[in-house]
């Protein structure tokens, strides 16, 4: 895995997605990690495994959705995929 300087992989998984913290300078000078996706899960994960989600920061090089599983794993997904949008809608309607 080749990550650009300053990035450390949080949890590379068998499905191929990569989540990395990116340290960005904020107005107050604090270094706060920002989770970014550099690759996405290659296939749809079962909805019953997904507990929550969040979108990656606009500071990331590409948009992404990070699903949190019931086992505590974080999985990067492509926000342009239909199933990703369906999961987001379902999670918003049924918290």
From TrEMBL:
<dbReference type="GO" id="GO:0030335">
    <property type="term" value="P:positive regulation of cell migration"/>
</dbReference>
<dbReference type="GO" id="GO:0008009">
    <property type="term" value="F:chemokine activity"/>
</dbReference>
<dbReference type="GO" id="GO:0005615">
    <property type="term" value="C:extracellular space"/>
</dbReference>
<protein>
    <recommendedName>
        <fullName>C-C motif chemokine</fullName>
    </recommendedName>
</protein>
<dbReference type="InterPro" id="IPR001811">
    <property type="entry name" value="Chemokine_IL8-like_dom"/>
</dbReference>
<dbReference type="Pfam" id="PF00048">
    <property type="entry name" value="IL8"/>
</dbReference>
<dbReference type="GO" id="GO:0070098">
    <property type="term" value="P:chemokine-mediated signaling pathway"/>
</dbReference>
<feature type="compositionally biased region" description="Polar residues">
    <location>
        <begin position="1"/>
        <end position="22"/>
    </location>
</feature>
<dbReference type="InterPro" id="IPR036048">
    <property type="entry name" value="Interleukin_8-like_sf"/>
</dbReference>
<feature type="region of interest" description="Disordered">
    <location>
        <begin position="1"/>
        <end position="28"/>
    </location>
</feature>
<dbReference type="GO" id="GO:0048020">
    <property type="term" value="F:CCR chemokine receptor binding"/>
</dbReference>
<feature type="domain" description="Chemokine interleukin-8-like">
    <location>
        <begin position="33"/>
        <end position="91"/>
    </location>
</feature>
<keyword id="KW-0202">Cytokine</keyword>
<keyword id="KW-0145">Chemotaxis</keyword>
<comment type="similarity">
    <text>Belongs to the intercrine beta (chemokine CC) family.</text>
</comment>
<dbReference type="InterPro" id="IPR039809">
    <property type="entry name" value="Chemokine_b/g/d"/>
</dbReference>
<keyword id="KW-1015">Disulfide bond</keyword>
<dbReference type="GO" id="GO:0006954">
    <property type="term" value="P:inflammatory response"/>
</dbReference>
<dbReference type="GO" id="GO:0061844">
    <property type="term" value="P:antimicrobial humoral immune response mediated by antimicrobial peptide"/>
</dbReference>
<dbReference type="InterPro" id="IPR000827">
    <property type="entry name" value="Chemokine_CC_CS"/>
</dbReference>
<keyword id="KW-0964">Secreted</keyword>
């Amino acid at each position: 895995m080749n990550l650009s300087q300053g990035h450390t992989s949080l949890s590379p998984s068998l499905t191929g997605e990569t989540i990395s913290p990116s340290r960005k300078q904020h107005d107050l000078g604090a270094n706060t990690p920002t989770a970014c996706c550099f690759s996405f899960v290659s296939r749809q994960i079962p909805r019953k495994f997904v507990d929550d989600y969040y979108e990656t920061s606009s500071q990331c090089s590409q948009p992404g959705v990070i699903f949190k599983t019931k086992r505590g794993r974080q999985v990067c997904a492509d926000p342009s995929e239909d199933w990703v949008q369906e999961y987001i809608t379902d999670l918003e309607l049924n918290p």
